[in-house]
Amino acid sequence: MPRGADWLVELSGQGQGGVSVRSLLEELYEQAGSSKEWGLIRYISGILRKRVEVLAEACTDLISHHKQLTVGLPPEPRERVITVPLPPEELNDLIYEASGQDISIAVLTQEIMVYLAMYVRSQPALFGDMLRLRIGLIMQVMATELARSLHCSGEEASESLMSLSPFGMKSLLHHILSGKEFGVERSVRPIQSTATSPAISIHELGHTGATKTERTGIHKLKREIKQRCSSPSTPSGILSPVGAGPGDGQLHWEERQGQWLRRRRLDGAINRVPSGFYQKVWKILQKCHGLSIDGYVLPSSTTREMTEGEIKFAVQVESVLNHVPQPEYRQLLVETMMVLGLVADVDVDSIGGIIHKDPATGICNFFYDSAPVAASAPCTYLSKATITYLQDFLPGSSCLMQ
C-alpha cells in the first residue's frame, strides 16, 4: 500500500486509531506559521501541493499587461510558456510539472508570480522593456545574488532564498527588476523572535552609475558609426573605441569587479531589452535573409508578415532568443543585435545572407564583465567584428576597420 499524505500513523498505540500524515503536516504548517519559519512553511506547502488563492488572478493580470510567463528552468520543453490565462488547477498542475521533482521551485514560482503581478499593477514602468518574464531564471538569479553577497555555496543560497520572509522576497525581486545596485547581508533577529532561520537584510546601494541606454553604450556607438560612415572627409574611417575620449576616464562603477557580469546576468534573466530593440531587429531582417541563433532561424519573411511594432513580432524574436539558456550570453546577443541595427540604419541595400550567432563558442569572463562604454568594452569589439563581417556591403571605404 502506498504511503502518501493520507497514510494513517498510529501515535497512541496500535488499535487506538491513527492520524493521517496530511493532518500532521497541516498542524506543523500552522506551528511554522506562528513561528515565521518561512522555509518550513514553503516546504510543507510543496508537499501538500498547496496553491496560492490568487494565483490565477496574478497570471491573468500579467498577461493582461501584455507579458508572457515561463515556469520551470530553461531550456524547453522543461521550461513551459504561458501566453493565455489558465484555470487555477490547470495553472497549479503546470507549475508542478515544470518544476519536476523539486517542490520548492513549484512553491516559490507561485509566490514570485503573485509578487510580479503586484508590481505590474502598482509599478508598470518596471516592466517597460520586458515582454517575457522567465520565473525560473529570475529565481535562479536571486539565488546567485544571495550566494555572491553572503559568500556561501549554491545549496546554502537556495536554502537562504527559501527562508526569506515574504517582505524580503518581494524586496529582493524589486531590486532585481529595478536595475539598481543592491546589497545583501546577514542581520540579527529581534530578541523576541522565535524564528530559527537566518535573518537577511536587503538594501539599496545607490545608482549603478549608468542608465539602461548607457549600459549598452548605444548612443555613443551610433554617433561613431554615423560620423564615420557618412562623412567623406574621414581619412581612414577608423572606428575609435567607445568611451575612449579624453573626458571618458575610468568611471567608478567600471572598477567594481563582477558588476557588469552581474548586470548582464540580471538583465538577461528578466529579458530586459533596450528601447527600440525589436524595431532594430525588424530593420536588420529587412536587409538580410535571417538571423540564426543556436540553430534557430528568424527569417526575413517575418517582416512581410508582421509590422515592426507588433507584439506578435516581438514574441517571435523572444522565442528565438530564449533558446539561449545563459542569461548573460543572451544579453550579449541583444547588445550585438543593437550594433547590427545601427549598421542596418546606414543606407545600404543588404547586409548579407543569414547572420549567425552561435552561443556554443566560449567567451572570456572578462568580456562578460566589461562595461559597455569602456575602451575595452564589448560594444567596441562587437562593432569592429560587425563592420569586419559586413564590410563588403557597406558604402565606400569609409567604414574599414583597423
UniProtKB/TrEMBL annotation:
The protein's name: Phosphorylase b kinase regulatory subunit
Membrane topology: Lipid-anchor
Domain of life: Eukaryota
Family named by the database record: Belongs to the phosphorylase b kinase regulatory chain family.
Domain GH15-like: 20-136
Post-translational modification: Although the final Cys may be farnesylated, the terminal tripeptide is probably not removed, and the C-terminus is not methylated.
Phosphorylase b kinase regulatory subunit alpha/beta C-terminal domain mapped to chain residues: 255-344
Region of interest (Disordered), residue spans: 225-251
Keyword list, A-Z: Calmodulin-binding, Carbohydrate metabolism, Cell membrane, Glycogen metabolism, Lipoprotein, Membrane, Prenylation
Annotated metabolic or biological route of this protein: Glycan biosynthesis; glycogen metabolism
GO cellular component terms, A-Z: phosphorylase kinase complex; plasma membrane
Composition bias type Polar residues, residue spans: 228-237
Main location: membrane
